[in-house]
Amino acid sequence: MADLPEPLPNAIFSMAQLAAMIELLPVGFAAHDGERLVLVNEAMCELSGYSRQQLLGMNFWELFAPQMRDMLQERNRARLAGADLPARYEAELITAQGEERFVDLFVTLLKVDGRIISLGRYLNTTERKLAEVHQKQTRQALRQIIDSNPVPTFVIDQNHIVTHWNKACEQVLGIKAVDVVGTRGHQKGFYDTERSTMADLIVDGSIETSIKELYGNKRLSRSQLIAGAYQAEDFFPNLSATGTWLYFVAAPLTDPDGEIVGAVETLQDVTEQRMTEYALMESKSELEHLVAARGEQLREATHELEQDITRRQEAEAELLERFNELSALNTELQQAQQQLVQSEKLASIGQLAAGVAHEINNPIGFVQSNLGSLERYFEQIMALLAGYQEGEVMLGGLIKDHEGGAALLEKMKQLKKDAELDYLKEDIPDLLKESRDGIVRVKQIVADLKDFSRVDSTQQWEWVDLRTGLSSTLNIVNNEIKYRADVVKEYGELPAIKCLPSQLNQVFMNLLVNAAQATPEGTHGTITIRCGTEAAGVWVEVADTGAGITEENLKRIFDPFFTTKPIGKGTGLGLSLSYGIVQKHGGKIEVRSEVGVGTTFRISLPIEPPEASDAADSGANAVPPAPTF
Asked: Which residues contact 597 (CB under 8 A, 6 or more apart)?
């Protein structure tokens, strides 16, 4: 290493003393002589993933990401040459396991035992860095949602600085986003003087004490849908030539710990509604005066007008409720999407099953009836043919001497031979029996389709035996399973439980199809279905001998839209919807899996779950963990 320009501080301690000092520190320390590492502490070993023996003598620059090595070496050379460079900066380490870690690096040059070394302190900032990246991505996603929202919306952070200001807000308030984002100037869009908006009051935590003073006579009310949100209505004379009435809703934005980190406020121009309301009120007053003068006829007209006002108020209330829901967009968007997908999927399956059952039942009915008639006709024809055969023997000797008699007998024998009458007498009954068995099989499939869909049950809670639903579902998905796996049934005694049968059938179908698809191509596996009772209710297991699920994927299998199948082969919604359905029934779904051995899903359900409304609240929109057993 080149000599440093003087003066260079000489360390007052030896290399051994320096090593002892940094060893006690909880932060990583390492020293190098320009090329090789000469000193490291235990915290640096833990940070880098290398042992002390591996680090000492190692090329120092290989610890860093390739894209940083040239820059760091250049800085080191410049610092040795006496350049005044920052001693602290951010760097990226590559661990022994190949992982990237961000560190806060502080460098100082020392002369110890006559040697010039560069001593660095390495503070692990990976979690903070990743959190910053995640926060940035979250803000970008929120910005896209807000910018595409047709409702005027702006967002401020805990410092009252505007972070989002969408195009609809630009149009209503007349202020461009570039002029207000990053500032505290959002108040200028509403008031000529400095005054807090409702969003400011929420961020300050003064909403309870100041809200009535500022908005007490402006239709102020708490939101019935969102905790901590308020709604009000006010007139703003500076927003247009004649002024504008705005209805606005402000709601807090919180971090995972429930702390307020900002607020979102949405606006709605209700000038036309207010003007209409005032006009209607004036018309009503005039009509009331006319009623007194003109009698019953005008009273009827007033009554109709009051009904119209009521309808308008109801429509306004519904509109206000919809805008309240928009302020909860961050938390409700995914839930609404899951409910929509589940409803559409269950509805399509029910319609398909009901349609197939209806279309098949009619032709099956008359085919079965015709087979019965055909059997009776065949018995009559056989009786007739038996009579003919007896007549042939008895009359053969009488008519063969008549003119043409011998030829007639020969013709009858040839016809019997050509028709293979004896074979037909044996084969036709077998064909009729096979046809009747086939009709019975089709009728069973139709019955299973009806039981699977339960479209005629109006989706009400019923007492059912789950084994019936399992058998129906197996019949429906048989074509999906039979070429890939054998099915083994190990049914125990089950009591009837109260449930929504078609929804649980949907869960069984998802698990059975997934079990079949888990069997690798070119192999034939086994799917085992078990069921039984436990203290709290009943349980059902679906086990396969497929490829299994890795530990990494096992934690995410119940996440919406997560799938390991190729693009176009799966939506990633089956297990997420199944989780919601089981939660809705007050039960739980668990999974255990071993790669290369197989996977087992276990569903536990109570005999009689909570009421439908309570069950729906607790499970329909739950965000599932990764349950295992």
From this structure: 545, 548
Q: Which CATH number characterizes residue 485's domain?
A: 3.30.565.10
Q: Which two tokens stand for residue 70?
A: 């040239």
> Which amino acid is present at 127?
E
**Which of 111, 109, 66, 108 shows the shortest CA–CA distance to 91?**
66
Give the integer Cα–Cα distance in Å for 480 and 308: 58
308 and 190 within one domain: no
Helical spans, DSSP H, in 454-591:
466-476, 478-481, 501-517, 551-554, 574-584
Q: Identify whether residues 400 and 533 lie together within a single domain.
A: no
Report whether the peptide linkage leading into residue 501 is cis, meaning its omega lies within 30 degrees of zero: no
Q: Assess whether 501 and 478 both reside in one domain.
A: yes
Give the pLDDT confidence score for residue 5 in this predicted structure: 43
Q: Report residue 445 as tokens.
A: 């499939």
| DSSP conformation letters of 201-230 | HHHHT-HHHHHHHHHTTTT-EE-SSSTT-E
CA distance 221 to 78: 65
For the packed helices 296-326 and 329-399, what is the interaxial angle rounded to 10 degrees?
100
* Tokens at 255, concatenated: 């971090």
Tell me whether residue 437 is exposed, middle or buried, using C-beta atoms within 10 angstroms of its C-beta: 0 to 12, 13 to 18, 19 or more. exposed
Give the pLDDT confidence of 269-283 residue by residue, as tens digits: 888 887 887 778 777
Q: In residues, how long is the chain?
A: 629
**Is residue 404 assigned to a domain?**
yes
Triad 317, 318, 322: Cα angle to 5°: 115
**Residue 245 backbone dihedrals phi, psi, to 5 degrees:** -90, 130
Co-location of 474 and 608 in the same domain: yes
| pLDDT tens digits, 300-325 | 777 888 887 888 888 778 777 777 76
What CA dihedral angle connects 281, 285, 291 and 297, to 10 degrees?
-20
What is the number of domains present in the chain? 5
- So what's the pLDDT on residue 2? 40
Report the amino acid identity of residue 131.
A
Q: pLDDT band at residue 164, thresholds of 50, 70 and 90?
A: confident
Is residue 209's pLDDT more than 50? yes
Q: Are residues 136 and 259 in the same domain?
A: yes
Residue 9 falls within a domain, yes or no?
Answer: no
Same domain, 322 and 376: no
Task: Report the C-alpha gap between 275 and 254 in whole angstroms.
Answer: 37
DSSP assignment letter at 457: G
By the 8 A CB rule, do 499 and 462 touch?
yes
Structure tokens at 521: 């191509």
Number of H helices, E strands in the chain: 20, 18
Whether 147 is in a domain gets the answer yes
Residue 282's domain comprises 276-327
Same domain membership, residue 509 and residue 581: yes
CB contact set of 280 (below 8 Å; sequence gap of 6+): 305, 308, 309, 312
Closest CA to 123 of 20, 29, 18: 29
Mark whether 288 and 398 lie in a shared domain: no
